[in-house]
Amino acid sequence: MASSEKGMLRISWLYLCMIFVVRVCEGFYLPGTYMHTYSNRETIYAKVNSLTSIETELPFSYYSLPYCLPLDGIKKSAENLGELLMGDQIDNSPYRFRMNVNESIFLCLTTPLTVHEVKILKQRTRDLYQVNMILDNLPAMRYAKQNGVNIQWTGFPVGYTQPNSNEDYIVNHLKFRVLIREYEGSGVEILGTGEEGLGVISEADKKKASGYEIVGFEVMPCSIKHDPEVMSKLHMYDNISSISCPGDLEKSQIIRERERVAFTYEVEFVKSNIRWPSRWDAYLKMEGARVHWFSILNSLMVIFFLAGIVFVIFLRTVRRDLTRYEELDKEAQAQMNEELSGWKLVVGDVFREPDCSKLLCVMVGDGVQITGMTVVTIIFAALGFMSPASRGMLLTGMIMLYLFLGTAAGYAGVRLWGTIKGTPEGWRSVAWSVACFFPGIVFIILTFLNFILWGSRSTGAIPISLYFILLSLWFCISVPLTLVGGFLGTRAEPIQYPVRTNQIPREIPERKYPSWLLVLGAGTLPFGTLFIELFFILSSIWLGRFYYVFGFLLIVLLLLVIVCAEVSVVLTYMHLCVEDWRWWWKAFFASGSVSFYVFLYSINYLVFDLQSLSGPVSAILYLGYSLIIAVAIMLSTGTIGFLVSFYFVHFLFSSVKID
After folding, report:
1. Which of 242, 49, 252 is nearest to 160 (CA)?
2. How far, in Å, CA of 527 to CA of 598, rounded?
3. How far, in Å, CA of 278 to CA of 291, rounded?
4. Are 552 and 528 in contact (CB under 8 A)?
5. What percent of the chain has pLDDT over 70?
6. How large is the average pLDDT for residues 400-422?
7. Integer Cα distance of 113 and 121 in angstroms
8. CB burial readout 390-403, b (16+ within 10 A) else e
């Protein structure tokens, strides 16, 4: 009877849990995953993001300039963690659209420009700042011809400066072209990238779903000098006559003190054959696609070829050594040990505790955490879960994964500590160090950069409230999970060494050249698999381009893991062959040295590809973020190389018969 009551109680609890999960799932949605349809004449308001520039990399608020304000005041949109960290500040705007209504609208007339407003407008214009406008989650796209080539940008400039002139002109008239497609509900499930959330359109919602969907948002900016006397008699959203963009500078609106600027815009709705799931295709077209494909393919072929050669030679060498060593009897082995040199002579020292063993355990633990985060993120992105329609989702997902992978980091670091020391004593200190090492480095660099951004009054500066949120996530999620992982690491059986370690260390023969030179040079091969993709990634980060070829990135990542493992193993074997038993750190940095070349390439990219980047502040920001990336790559690739080398050395010496 008691057992049946317990069974009923468990079923009741299970039922309640299922109801809770279902309700949570109903309330959960992914931003940018549901199509929104609009009826005729339905009002839609555009949103504005931070002003951005590839010359300064310092984002500023849209309303830091004397633009028209919404009637109901400025309201910030809800932003996720990734958007806040990237400096996005999405606000409402006064730009109103009415579905399928073509019209020319007066927006506002500013008060006479002050000295400060003129100064900041000229500065933003000459720094090539772009206004980033959003309609139905689509960024405004601008098309232009340059040297006979069609070029597309997201956003439009604050203004422009004529060559050989000190005069600046503000963009105050916008011609919008909204591409729409008529949609009729069919009672089928809808899953795509929109703004409202995840959902299903049923027959009951057919009428509600019928309408028009927005599949494109284009803008053509103009500078037009309006008559202030005429414009002062108009009210916001009054209709005006259509205006053509002037080609004469005298008819453009100059930026000058005491000038009153009138802002106007035109809207044209155009029916399009673009399907709603394909509306982001125009944004995701990467320049130099053919070069991208052939370069990646060429790198894959070369690296696979080199890796295959190294792997075959390496297998033959080790197999010959082992076979030759094991075929001898004990006396012959003793004589061989006296006469021959090589990895067999360091059998009593190969597992001797390395220098700074605690630091090694900490770096390996953090490397496991970063590698796991990177692999899972890229797999999800390659499967289409990290859509660019969901702003900040990629960075938010990476942070959340990093936090929850603290368990794996603590486990790896503490288990390696127990293996090296032979006892888990002191594991709490190791687990705390794992939880604080890499996040501490990032926190120090970001704090330094944040003071620079605060001084520049940029929206890219992390607010104090977000600092407390990040610290709370760090110490309330990551640190406890790392300690839990460390505790699990103490419960795991330490890896047993196949050979005993001598009490007196063996003397290492002198070498003609320093071994660290070989370790540093080993990073060139992994870098060869990475540098082409690195160019596209840096372009997407610093030149405002979309990066969405995560399938290629996943292939490059897998290739990088293979090459890092092989390079580290080969270098470890080479050091053991010259009786150098201090292989621990060399195995780590043999593959981890790729980060040195990544940082050098970042400097090269700054000098030759970001020539427009102006001012020391922008350069410091660039180098600071590049340093964080380089440290993360060092920990990840170094961990891969070290772990594979560790298991290789363990396998190698467990295959040798030792008395």
Report:
1. 252
2. 7
3. 24
4. no
5. 81
6. 93
7. 10
8. bbbbbbbbbbbbbb
